[in-house]
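Quick review question:
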């Protein structure tokens, strides 16, 4: 009995000790209390002396603060210089607190480990301190939508790891800083992807030195400044560019011809400048969707014929640009064209827009030109034509024609519809959610700086954005019931502005933790909007409906009294507990050793590092070092299991580290079993396991790094490579060979259980490698042909027979592979907008009874104008793999043989080493989505029927 009593108190002592270890470091506590003294409206949980354990929005590593995230919490006051005492701080987000004012303190330069600094939409003012250049670990720097003044600090050029630079919507003035001698400048930011510097007062010329072939920029946004001089031709050296905004400045001179080499640019705005000369031929910019060069001083020029070849164009604005001549009817047949605005020019002749039935064209504004005739033989009912001020409208009796009026498009009153419910009356200031629940929503505006569409009345765009927002909120476990989007408009900067309302879940209002989480997701670009919306920023409204604090003074007094009494008792028994602890120490050590799942793995090196058939154990310190402390810059993927980081070992080898989230961790023995399973499989079409880490509460797997990413990324256009028919067959063959090895050559056989395009990785030569064995199962019992197990996998790829019976077989992998084969030729997700790809293919085949019904489903980037030899056999094989009954599906070894035969039919050697991507395959990144998007490309317009060889 005495032993049990001592044990109870020992546990209390241990618990007391652990709490003491986790208490906030003194210097951090002092700094936080100083900040709290200068701020108003701090979270009500900011009481007590242990922020690491008790204060909301504070995260710690051990006893040191590493993150302060106070977005949208209603803070007021100034940022104290004591912030510089938080030596381990990595993330500081104070966004959307409009009453935070004053300058950024010079002491911010002491935060040597800071990787994220975000103060979007606050009231900060004054100049940016040069000490900002001391933050060598900084990756995200977002200071937009404040009142900062002065020049952009040249010291920002020292931030070699900077990925995101957003200084827009302030009052910065003076020149754009570039390096000179020992002086740094923005031209040194070779890893930066984003220069967002619009809506300031920057002046002087754009330095040619700002751009070089070493830059990796995708966004250059300098709109609405006071920049002068010419557009530097060096801009054409930045081949990664996707969005260019230099509009609303005082730029002059000709547009440099080298700009036409920017083959990835999708949006280009050069309007409202003083550009002169003639516009160069831009036909090489084949993915350009928006071009606005209005209000410049170009020489008189005919409507360029090359514009009719730009099939990606959605929006063309060339107002007041000295255009003359007649517009070719073929221009209006561009498949994606939505808006044409060419008013205030000298265009003449007959306007013939041809047959536009079924196209996306909605507006043609040619006011104040010299057009004398409108050919209406084509079907133009869906197109609004504006010809006021043309000769055709000056004829007798023509003034009453709709196209001769000056009516403008009406305001778009779009709002997210209600979800099959009728909203009731809500109390004052409450609003009904799309689910008809009254509450106080978190509101603000989404501002998209360069959307690729101009048809604002197309509700499909907003529905896609709505779904993307909800998925992001759900993925990050935020307390959101629903969101509502409304009133899309284009503002004076040509930004698409959308009102956003976010409604709380299971309550009528958010607490500070809720608004802070939502604000952080939107401020640090965690949310990735659909590709057509382009770069964005969010501006939150003030939220004034937080719930009351739950803490009370009396409760705190009770805690203090209880702690005092408990502490006295513990001190009396401390000696007895210590004696008992010593007695138990060796026993505990023996138990820990017994329960260590890795204790029997023999050491094969003098350093004592355990080895297991090539998979070695990495220390946590090693992993931290090679991933730069798990920096965001090294993060290359996220899934339900956790995050994947890119790392570099001391010998230069690049690796991929899969780090499990706490909630997805396995038991120690299960983790060991997975490592043992992976260490037994070695095949060129399987991603190799190099090692693992199992310490400090972490479970990490270390794999070979596969540089071209996933097949899903490639099919969506994100990876930047076009896949022709032969390449797709080779990828299918590689994946099939990897699976066949698992099924027939691994001992015991292994069922992957999660075959999908995201788990097929491509190396530098686009060879396929099967990855992610987290759900894999071994067929240990060779007496049975199945495993009875809980159903796991990914919807869309999941074997329906396994789903119904819970009996997992090798044919379950075959089914998932069949779906993968269909995805390879359609580039569509298995389930998209409620449509299942297997069913869609079956319906198309049944309807036409041949392959003709598949044309509109095929991926248009597959070079459909060429002959697809063996295509019919390929489709038949895919449909065999997705048969309802596993018994009717082929074995993977047979699938391998069939694909090998298809390659031989097509004249390709199935066993030949793949060609280099740079040597043999067209760079297709110009067709990829922008970096905010993780979604697949839509199929787009249907190309001409491909030539299919069925022999």
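Suggested answer, residue by residue:
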């Amino acid at each position: 009995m005495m032993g049990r009593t001592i044990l109870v108190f020992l546990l209390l002592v241990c618990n007391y000790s652990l709490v003491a270890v986790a208490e906030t470091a003194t210097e951090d506590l002092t700094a936080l209390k100083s900040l709290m003294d200068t701020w108003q409206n701090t979270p009500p949980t900011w009481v007590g002396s242990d922020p690491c354990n008790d204060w909301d929005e504070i995260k710690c590593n051990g006893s040191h603060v590493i993150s302060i995230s106070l977005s949208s919490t209603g803070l007021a006051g100034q940022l104290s210089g004591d912030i510089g005492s938080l030596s381990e701080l990595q993330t500081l987000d104070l966004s959307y607190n409009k009453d935070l004012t004053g300058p950024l303190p010079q002491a911010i330069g002491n935060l040597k480990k800071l990787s994220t600094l975000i103060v979007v939409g606050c009231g900060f003012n004054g100049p940016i301190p040069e000490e900002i250049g001391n933050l060598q670990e900084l990756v995200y720097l977002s200071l937009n939508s404040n009142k900062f003044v002065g020049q952009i600090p040249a010291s920002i050029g020292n931030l070699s790891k900077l990925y995101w630079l957003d200084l827009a919507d302030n009052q910065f003035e003076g020149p754009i800083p570039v390096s000179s001698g020992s002086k740094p400048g923005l031209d040194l930011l070779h890893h930066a992807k984003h220069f967002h510097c619009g809506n300031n007062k920057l002046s002087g010329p754009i330095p040619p030195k700002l751009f070089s072939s070493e830059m990796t920029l995708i966004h250059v946004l300098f709109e609405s400044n006071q920049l002068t001089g010419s557009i530097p031709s060096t801009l054409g050296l930045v081949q990664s560019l996707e969005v260019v905004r230099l509009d609303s400045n005082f730029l002059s001179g000709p547009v440099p011809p080298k700009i036409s080499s920017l083959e990835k640019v999708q949006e280009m705005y050069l309007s409202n400048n003083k550009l002169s000369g003639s516009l160069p031929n831009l036909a090489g910019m084949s993915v350009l969707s928006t071009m606005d060069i209005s209000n410049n001083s170009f020489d008189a020029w005919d409507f360029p014929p090359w514009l009719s070849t730009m099939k990606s164009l959605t929006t063309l604005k060339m107002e007041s640009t000295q255009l003359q001549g007649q517009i070719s009817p073929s221009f209006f047949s561009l498949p994606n064209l939505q808006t044409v605005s060419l008013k205030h020019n000298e265009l003449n002749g007959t306007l013939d827009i041809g047959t536009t039935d079924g196209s996306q064209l909605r507006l043609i504004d040619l006011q104040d030109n010299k057009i004398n005739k409108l050919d209406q033989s084509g079907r133009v009912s869906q197109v609004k034509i504006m010809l006021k001020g043309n000769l055709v409208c000056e004829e007798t009796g023509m003034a009453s024609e709709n196209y001769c009026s000056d009516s403008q498009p009406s305001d778009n009153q779009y709002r997210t519809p209600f979800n099959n419910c009728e909203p009731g009356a809500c109390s004052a200031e409450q609003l009904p959610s799309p689910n008809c629940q009254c509450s106080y929503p978190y509101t603000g505006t989404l501002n998209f700086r360069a959307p690729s569409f101009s048809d604002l009345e197309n509700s499909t765009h907003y529905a896609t954005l709505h779904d993307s927002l909800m998925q992001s909120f759900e993925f990050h476990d935020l307390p959101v019931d629903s969101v509502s989007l409304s009133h899309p408009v284009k503002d004076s900067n040509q930004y698409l502005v959308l009102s956003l309302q976010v409604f709380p879940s299971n309550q009528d209002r958010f607490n500070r933790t809720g608004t802070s989480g939502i604000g952080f997701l939107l401020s640090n670009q965690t949310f990735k909007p659909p590709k057509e919306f382009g770069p964005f920023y969010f501006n939150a409204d003030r939220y004034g409906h937080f719930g009351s604090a739950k803490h009370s003074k009396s409760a705190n007094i009770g805690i203090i009294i209880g702690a005092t009494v408990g502490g006295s008792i513990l001190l009396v028994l401390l000696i007895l507990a210590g004696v008992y602890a010593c007695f138990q120490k060796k026993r505990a050590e023996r138990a820990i050793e017994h329960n260590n799942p890795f204790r029997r793995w023999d050491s094969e090196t003098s350093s004592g590092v355990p080895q297991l058939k090539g998979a070695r154990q990495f220390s946590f310190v090693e992993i931290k070092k090679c991933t730069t402390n798990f920096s965001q810059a090294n993060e290359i993927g996220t899934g339900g299991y956790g995050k994947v980081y890119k790392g570099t070992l001391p010998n230069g080898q690049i690796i991929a580290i899969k780090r499990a989230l706490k909630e997805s961790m396995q038991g120690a023995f299960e983790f060991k079993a997975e490592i043992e399973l992976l260490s037994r499989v070695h095949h060129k079409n399987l991603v190799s396991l190099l090692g693992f880490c199992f310490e400090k509460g972490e479970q990490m797997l270390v794999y070979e790094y596969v540089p071209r990413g996933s097949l899903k990324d490639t099919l969506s256009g994100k990876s930047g490579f076009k896949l022709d028919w032969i390449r797709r067959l080779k990828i299918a063959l590689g994946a099939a060979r990897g699976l066949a090895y698992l099924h027939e050559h691994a001992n015991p056989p292994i069922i992957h259980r999660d075959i999908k395009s995201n788990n097929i990785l491509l190396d530098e030569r686009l060879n396929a490698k099967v990855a992610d064995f987290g759900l894999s199962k071994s067929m240990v019992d060779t007496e049975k042909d199945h495993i009875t197990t809980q159903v796991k996998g990914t919807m869309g790829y999941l074997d329906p027979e396994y789903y119904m019976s819970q009996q997992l077989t090798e044919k379950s992998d075959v089914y998932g592979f069949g779906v993968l084969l269909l995805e390879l030729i359609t580039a569509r997700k298995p389930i998209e907008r409620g449509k299942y790809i297997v069913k869609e293919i079956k319906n198309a085949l049944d309807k036409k009874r041949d392959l003709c019904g598949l044309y509109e489903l095929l991926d248009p980037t597959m070079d459909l104008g060429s002959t697809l030899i063996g295509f019919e056999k390929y489709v038949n094989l895919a449909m065999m793999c997705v048969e309802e009954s596993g018994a009717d599906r082929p074995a993977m070894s047979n699938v391998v043989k069939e694909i090998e035969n298809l390659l031989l039919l097509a004249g390709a050697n199935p066993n030949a080493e793949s060609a280099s991507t740079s040597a043999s395959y067209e760079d297709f990144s110009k067709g990829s989505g922008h970096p905010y998007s993780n979604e697949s490309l839509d199929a787009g317009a249907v190309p001409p029927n491909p030539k299919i060889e069925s022999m």
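Why it works: The longest strand covers residues 480-490. The radius of gyration is 31 Å.
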